[in-house]
C-alpha cells in the first residue's frame, strides 16, 4: 500500500512545498523534465508523490483519489461544499499567504464597509434596473460572506482573468479577489472595504476523509506525521 500525496506541480507554491517538506527530512523531487509530472519521495517509506495543479487538489482529495494534498485553504473552501466533511486540515504551512477581499472604486468616497455596499447596491438597482455586479472567481465564499452580512442586491459575474480590470472595463462595479500586497488593486484605482478579509488563505496540508485508509495506510500516515512533527 502507498499513500498518495498531491502537491502543486509548478511555480513558487511547488518550490515552497518542496522546501517545507525538505526542512522536515522528507525530500520531494521531480524525476523528469519540467514537462513531465513524474516525482519521487525520499526520507519516509510508502509515499507516492502526485503533481497536480493547486486547483485540482481539492477535487482529488474530495474524491479520495489522493490521501493527502497541499493547496490553498481558499481553494478548498471555494471548491468543496461542506468541505469539512470531505477533508481535514493537518497543518498550516506558513507560506502562500493571501487575503480574499472585496474592493470598490476609490471614487466611491461614501462606500467603506459592507453596510455601505449594501446601501449603494440597493440604490444602484433602483437607478439602473439591474443588480450591482461583483467580479470574482470565488463565488461560494463571496456569496456566503455577503449573505452572512445582509448584502442582497448584487450579482456575481465570473472572472477567470484579470479581475481587477473588470471595473475599468465596465463589466463589473466591484471585485472580490485574492491579494497579498494590494498593489494591483491600487494601480486599478480600487480600495479594499474595511474590516476583516473574507478569508485569510495560506498553503495547508490536508487529509482526505474519503480516501482508502485501510490496511497499512494509517500506519504510513502516522509515520509521515511523526517525521513532519505534526500531531493529530
SS-based class: alpha/beta
The major beta sheet can be summarized as:
6 strands, mixed
- The end-to-end span amounts to 21 Å
Strand content: 25-35%
Query: How many distinct helices?
Result: 7
The pLDDT mean sits at: 93
SSE arrangement, N to C: EHEEEHEHEEHEHEEHEEEH
Spatial extent as radius of gyration = 21 Å
Extended strand count:
13
Low-confidence spans: pLDDT under 50, at least 5 residues? none
Layout of strands and helices, then pairs:
Layout: E1 3-8, H1 11-22, E2 27-30, E3 39-42, E4 47-52, H2 57-63, E5 68-72, H3 73-79, E6 87-92, E7 98-105, H4 114-128, E8 132-136, H5 139-148, E9 154-158, E10 174-179, H6 183-187, E11 190-192, E12 199-201, E13 203-208, H7 217-228
Parallel strand pairs: 1-4, 1-5, 8-9, 8-10
Antiparallel strand pairs: 2-3, 5-13, 6-13, 7-10, 7-11, 7-12
How would you describe what is shown here?
Helix 5 (139-148) links the parallel strand 8 and strand 9 (154-158). It is elongated, with a radius of gyration of 21 Å. It has 232 residues and is α/β, with parallel strands linked by helices. The strands form three sheets. Strands 7, 8, 9, 10, 11 and 12 form a six-stranded mixed sheet that branches. A five-stranded mixed sheet has the order 4-1-5-13-6. The chain has a two-stranded antiparallel ribbon with strand order 2-3. It contains seven helices and 13 strands. It has helices at 11-22, 57-63, 73-79, 114-128, 139-148, 183-187, 217-228; strands spanning 3-8, 27-30, 39-42, 47-52, 68-72, 87-92, 98-105, 132-136, 154-158, 174-179, 190-192, 199-201, 203-208.
Amino acid at each position: 500500500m502507498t499513500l498518495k500525496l498531491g502537491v502543486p506541480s509548478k511555480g513558487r507554491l511547488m518550490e515552497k512545498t518542496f522546501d517545507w517538506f525538505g526542512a522536515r527530512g522528507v525530500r520531494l523531487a521531480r524525476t523528469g523534465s519540467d514537462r513531465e509530472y513524474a516525482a519521487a519521495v525520499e526520507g519516509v517509506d510508502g509515499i507516492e508523490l502526485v503533481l497536480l495543479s493547486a486547483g485540482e487538489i481539492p477535487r482529488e482529495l474530495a474524491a479520495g483519489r489522493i490521501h493527502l494534498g497541499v493547496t490553498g485553504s481558499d481553494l478548498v473552501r471555494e471548491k468543496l461544499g461542506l468541505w469539512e466533511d470531505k477533508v481535514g486540515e493537518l497543518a498550516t504551512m506558513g507560506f502562500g499567504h493571501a487575503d480574499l477581499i472585496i474592493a470598490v472604486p476609490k471614487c466611491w468616497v461614501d462606500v467603506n464597509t459592507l453596510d455601505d455596499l449594501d446601501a449603494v447596491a440597493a440604490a444602484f438597482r433602483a437607478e439602473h434596473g439591474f443588480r450591482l455586479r461583483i467580479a470574482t472567481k470565488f463565488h461560494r465564499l463571496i456569496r456566503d460572506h455577503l449573505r452572512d452580512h445582509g448584502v442582497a442586491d448584487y450579482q456575481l459575474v465570473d472572472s477567470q482573468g484579470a479581475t481587477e480590470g473588470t471595473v475599468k472595463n465596465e463589466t463589473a462595479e466591484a471585485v472580490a479577489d485574492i491579494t497579498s500586497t494590494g498593489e494591483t488593486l491600487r494601480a486599478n484605482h480600487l480600495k479594499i472595504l474595511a474590516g476583516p478579509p473574507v478569508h485569510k488563505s495560506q498553503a495547508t496540508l490536508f487529509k482526505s476523509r474519503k480516501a482508502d485508509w485501510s490496511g497499512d495506510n494509517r500506519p504510513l500516515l502516522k509515520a509521515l506525521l511523526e517525521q513532519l512533527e505534526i500531531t493529530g
